[in-house]
Request: fold
Amino acid sequence: MQMPDGSWYGNWGVCFTYGTWFALGGLVAAGKNYHNCLAIRRGVKFLLKSQRDDGGWGESYTSCSTEKHIPLEGNSSNLVQTWWTLMGLLHSAQAERDPTPLHKVARLLIIPKWKMEITGSFIKNCMIHYATYRNTFPLWALAEYAGVCHCLKVDCISMSSKHQ
Reply:
């Protein structure tokens, strides 16, 4: 069920970010799109308004037990949640409307400076850390980004020379 803020609650992952990624992908797989589906537009709006200053996304594990979206403290981002969000935005064709938030997060994923946060939840109160997520999913997300945006180029997501 979609929440009033446009998100969906997700089980196993933390939490509204995770659920919204899956819901957007499922709606698109069922033939819906941003233009013909209010639920997708509301989900995209939720994700875009949750983007952190650094370009990523971060949700506290306490969202699972409170069933209310709670951002990570200190405006910090979570690598895995950022990946989930990027994938949700890519599924919902954000690149066709405004790729700016996608480019911002791609820069962040290329040169990550991440503190690992809890990414999983079991029965709303047993938190899980999936150690391999930080290595696998950013690469997957960047590959999807490159395929959708066709622009992993220096002029699109420029990096300083020390990282090239």
Notes: The chain is about 45% helix and 5% strand. Residues 158-164 have pLDDT under 50 and may be disordered. The longest strand covers residues 120-122.
